[in-house]
TrEMBL record:
Residues 8-112 form the Thiamine pyrophosphate enzyme N-terminal TPP-binding domain. Keywords: Thiamine pyrophosphate. Belongs to the TPP enzyme family. The keyword Phosphoprotein does not apply. The keyword Nucleus does not apply. This is Acetolactate synthase-1/2/3 large subunit. It comes from Pigmentiphaga kullae.
Length: 524
């Protein structure tokens, strides 16, 4: 790093980020961060992306990290700004996304006055962060920033929150002086664990090999398919995953169903579960009279690639140890076939049409919630694509996730399947898409209700919605006009009611550059 006689602390922080390969900053700054903003202004190598709400900032950083395989930085304003972004940091944490979260704070000498925006930022950050640090003085900026990057880049990716007091940002600093923490290098499981797993895979019992994290990319999936065929195991993925490479010509893996009853049926015959970068399956919520664990009694669980271990290298080792290189070729998904459906738009007909029309190497960002419950099955034979989904259940992730993915992959088409109710949490992401000229096609599944909550009201045994409940669960009075809202954000859009009009709008949107929104008004 080049040093000048009087670099500001903010300059040192920016330079250290760039030196460590972080060249994108999603930001919503305030007064305490103005010296950092000024430093960014002096760094043309840093791409600065404004989000009009902090949940857009953190959600975009999540989507970016999933596709770039490296962290972006965020820039948030004090404790309240961080608090506004916590929901999508929760999703990022569950996805294993690396994020370097930079939060401004008051100058150190101003904190005793307890000014209106003063808060305990460290306490707010800790539930979503693997590492939290307030930079104590200018001499620690370079080392603390380098450590934050190292923590974020761990396997799986982590959220590192670095708090920058305003006076540390504006002070003169030469940087240096303290060593950064070394980057953890993921390795293989212990020899004892690996021997135990090989024994289990050869014992003839009904086995589920559950894959998560980096094991859900195309190459390790092919390796896992060989292993499973060689020992008679069944492949399965968790219900929620940060990124999967799937579609025609790739190994198809089912996920654990969301429904407790369906999940219990799916796993009923499992005698042993081997986890590779995944956790044991549990119900999303507690339901009266239903279990929390989805595994049958007596099912043995063996964790093969735990946190900090490399699931991809572990699968390669397992294939070699079992002689799976001599097994049949991986079981690959065939291309989808058949005509497009016709008539009024339903969730099923829309998803079938999307699966037929999606271009090769698209990135499908899914926050379709209940309307997209069959999306995974109906797009098995779609063109090869990456699949990103909401991971932590905190709604409002879809539009920001697509925004970040588009910035990470400017040469790929991003398709966002977004439920209307959850889309309202972070619709400001459309403005960022317009400003950055991002190639994102947003498909709004407009049923004008929180349909999942109508179902969950029954699932927990509370019955059907009456008038008061309906007013808390429906979005029809007044109805949301997504085309008008998109236009107000600078994004063109169209509303469609039939499969034919949807297919025409999607083809047109995919043939043009820049963002476009399709409001799919579903039959209910």
């Amino acid at each position: 790093m080049t040093h000048h006689s009087a670099l500001s602390g903010a300059d040192v922080l920016c330079d250290t980020l760039l030196d460590h390969g972080i060249d994108t900053c999603f930001a919503n700054p305030g007064t305490s961060e103005m010296h950092f903003v000024a430093a960014l202004d002096r760094k043309p190598a840093m791409r600065c992306v404004l989000g009009l709400f902090e949940g857009v900032v953190t959600g975009a950083a999540d989507g970016y990290a999933r596709m770039a395989d490296k962290p972006a930085a965020t820039l948030l304003h004090l404790g309240p700004g961080l608090a506004n972004g916590l929901a999508n940091l929760h999703n990022a944490r569950r996805a294993g996304s690396p994020v370097v979260n930079i939060v401004g704070d008051h100058a150190r000498h101003h904190l005793p006055y307890d000014a209106p925006l003063t808060s305990d930022i460290e306490t707010l950050a800790r539930p979503m962060s693997a590492w939290v640090r307030t930079i104590p003085d200018p001499s620690h900026i370079q080392s603390d920033t380098a450590t934050a990057v190292a923590v974020a880049r761990g396997k799986p990716g982590r959220i590192a929150t670095l708090i920058l007091p305003a006076d540390v940002a504006w002070s003169d600093s030469a940087g240096g002086g303290h060593a950064a923490a070394p980057l953890d290098t993921p390795g293989l499981p212990s020899p004892e664990t690996m021997r135990k797993v090989v024994e289990r895979l050869r014992n003839g019992r009904r086995t589920v090999l559950m894959l998560g994290g980096g094991a859900l990319r195309a190459a390790p999936l092919a390796t896992a398919s060989r292993v499973a065929q060689g020992c008679g195991a069944r492949l399965l993925a968790p219900q929620s995953n940060g990124r999967m490479e799937r579609g025609a010509g790739r190994v198809a893996v089912n996920r654990v169903p969301f429904s407790v009853d369906s999940a219990l049926r799916s796993l009923a015959d499992a005698e042993q579960l081997i986890l590779v970068g995944a956790r044991p399956p549990v119900a999303f919520f507690a339901y009266p009279g239903k279990p929390g664990s989805l595994l049958p009694a007596g099912c043995e669980v063996v964790e093969l690639a735990a946190e900090g271990e490399d699931p991809v290298a572990t699968l390669d080792w397992l294939a070699d140890e079992l002689g799976s290189s001599a097994a049949p070729l991986p079981l690959l998904e065939a291309p989808g076939a058949g005509p497009l459906p016709s008539g009024g738009l339903t969730p099923a007909s829309l998803i079938t049409a999307l699966g037929r029309l999606m271009p090769e190497h698209a990135v499908l960002c899914d926050e379709s919630v209940s309307s997209g419950r069959d999306l995974f099955e109906q797009t098995r034979g779609a063109a090869p694509h990456d699949y990103l989904q909401i991971t932590g259940g905190a709604i409002g992730s879809g539009l920001p996730m697509a925004t970040g993915a588009a910035i990470a992959c400017p040469d790929r088409r991003i398709v966002c399947l977004q439920a209307d109710g959850s889309g309202m949490y972070t619709l400001q992401a459309l403005w960022t898409q317009a400003r950055e000229r991002l190639d994102v096609v947003t498909i709004i599944l407009s049923n004008r209700r929180y349909a999942i909550l109508h179902a969950e009201l029954k699932n927990v045994g509370a019955g059907a919605a009456g008038e008061n409940a309906r007013r808390m669960l429906d979005l029809d009075d007044p109805a949301l006009d997504w085309v008008a809202m998109a236009r107000g954000m600078g994004v063109e859009g169209v509303a469609v009611h039939t499969v034919e009009s949807f297919a025409g709008a999607l083809r047109s949107a995919l043939a043009r550059s820049g963002p476009f929104l399709i409001e799919a008004r579903l039959q209910t």
